[in-house]
Specification:
The chain is mainly alpha-helical. Helix content is 75%, strand content 1%. It contains 18 helices and 2 strands. A two-stranded parallel sheet has the order 1-2.
Length: 457
């Protein structure tokens, strides 16, 4: 790890050579909590939409603009947040985003018209966009490369858990007493979490070493990971390929043979997010119009949500062993088939619940896997940019999803039509990642060895 003459300390080698320990677990737990809050807040509009529409005395479809504009805010934020994080740090960007979107969410219950909701959720969306790319970058850069996909998936499970751990209880016990309570929960939780993260969440060692090789925070964080490590204070810390992203980090996403990989990854994210946000925004409304009770809808939120968490957790483990581009097409295609099956089943039946559970398992496992794939695809100096721009492609799909759902509902497509149409984008995502797998199998993929990290795609 060290060179006795030059006192150079290779941070990449140190991190990749360590077993997962207490410092790793603490970081992952904090980021899981962050993702839970983010997942809840992003889908908050969909959770309260039927109740909000009733209170405002308008048709639910009239609130489509709120969901779409929030996704537009997320899209714009993703264009900015990655380059900012690659230049100034993942931790500070994450804390700033949590603080602002928490405060704005607390203000939302004071809105009384649709335009006011539109403005508030647009600005909130800009800052909501900062959580996932920075959380993924932080967990990617503390974990050894050999288990990176596993722990990215474990961390992303928090996003899946947002509507299950927080959303389902809120719908069952708080929203019936007033949709405003859902926004209070969505504002208080991130603001409380900021205080915890400020004291407990470290900055990425790979980022610190790439930006400032003599940063005094580096030795302290190294000793958190390995208390037995001996340093004499004269070391210069280095992390090959982990320097600042430069003035045009987006161009790096298309260099060194990455163009096809980047474009196919964007297609996968776009299509997966069409489905995720269409369902997140309109599922409760579609099921309610189909005759299901509030308790039945809460069950459909809860049990498939649990299956989604399991899919998220297990997908990373499998991807670390077989490669994400081999595994992801299976997950995404499985989600497509299960979604299509719902269109042909009797809505209150046990078979419909089973189809929702299967869809939750594969859909969330696939979405998590896409994040793991993005973190493995790009070198550290542009990792946050790579993940956030992939999410920008996803957020473009997030805008399409709610608009498509609103159009289908307004056109009278009904439960069968909505779920059948929703199955198509996931199949497109599966095809895109399958093509990426064939590109990598044919040796036309970017090499990552030069960055000092090993990645299996």
């Amino acid at each position: 790890m060290t060179d006795s003459a030059q006192k150079n300390f290779d941070v990449n080698r140190f991190l990749d050579g360590r077993n997962v320990g207490r410092a790793h677990i603490v970081t992952v737990v904090l980021l899981i909590l962050t993702m839970i809050v983010d997942g809840y807040d992003i889908f908050l509009v969909g959770i309260v939409l039927p109740f909000l529409a009733k209170d405002l005395g308008i048709a639910p479809a009239a609130l489509t603009s709120v969901a779409v504009v929030q996704q537009f805010g997320l899209l714009l934020g993703n264009f900015v947040v990655g380059p900012v994080a690659d230049r100034y740090g993942r931790r500070v960007t994450l804390l700033a985003c949590l603080t602002v979107f928490g405060a704005l969410t607390l203000l939302t219950p004071f809105a009384s018209t649709v335009p006011e909701f539109v403005v508030l959720r647009f600005v909130t969306g800009i800052f909501l966009s900062g959580v996932i790319p920075n959380a993924i970058a932080l967990v990617s850069e503390i974990m050894p490369a050999r288990v990176r996909a596993t722990f990215v998936s474990i961390t992303f499970a928090g996003y899946t858990m947002g509507t299950t751990v927080i959303g389902a209880p809120v719908v069952k016990w708080l929203v019936p007493h007033g949709w405003e309570y859902a926004f209070v929960v969505g504002g208080v939780l991130p603001l409380t979490l900021v205080l915890v993260l400020y004291f407990g969440l470290p900055e990425s060692l790979r980022f610190l070493a790439g930006r400032s090789p003599r940063d005094p925070r580096i030795p302290r964080q190294l000793r958190r990971i390995d208390p037995t490590l001996v340093l004499d204070g004269s070391e210069t810390f280095e992390a090959h390929g982990a320097g600042g992203g430069g003035k045009a980090p987006i161009l790096t996403l298309f260099r060194d043979g990455r163009m096809a990989t980047t474009l196919l990854l964007w297609v996968g994210f776009h299509m997966a997010f069409v489905v995720s946000n269409l369902m997140g925004t309109w599922r409760n409304q579609v099921l309610s119009a189909g005759g299901l009770s509030l308790d039945q809808i809460a069950s459909i939120m809860f049990f498939p949500g649990i299956a989604g968490v399991l899919g998220t957790l297990t997908s990373g483990y499998v991807m670390d062993r077989l490669g994400p581009t081999r595994v992801l097409p299976v997950y995404l295609a499985g989600a497509s088939v299960a979604m299509a099956a719902i269109a042909f089943l009797d809505l209150p039946s046990v078979w419909t619940m089973l189809a929702f559970v299967i869809s939750g398992y594969f859909s969330n496992g696939g979405l998590s896997g896409l994040n793991a794939l993005a973190s493995l695809t790009y070198p550290p100096q542009v990792r946050a940019t790579g993940v956030s721009w992939a999410h920008a492609a996803g957020r473009a799909g997030s805008m399409v999803g709610p608009a498509l759902g609103g159009m289908l509902i307004a056109s009278g497509y009904g439960v069968a039509g909505v779920f059948l149409v929703t199955s198509i984008p996931q199949l497109c995502a599966a095809i895109a990642i399958f093509v990426m797998w064939r590109l990598h199998a044919g040796g036309r993929s970017p090499a990552t060895a030069a960055t000092g990290e090993a990645a299996k795609l």
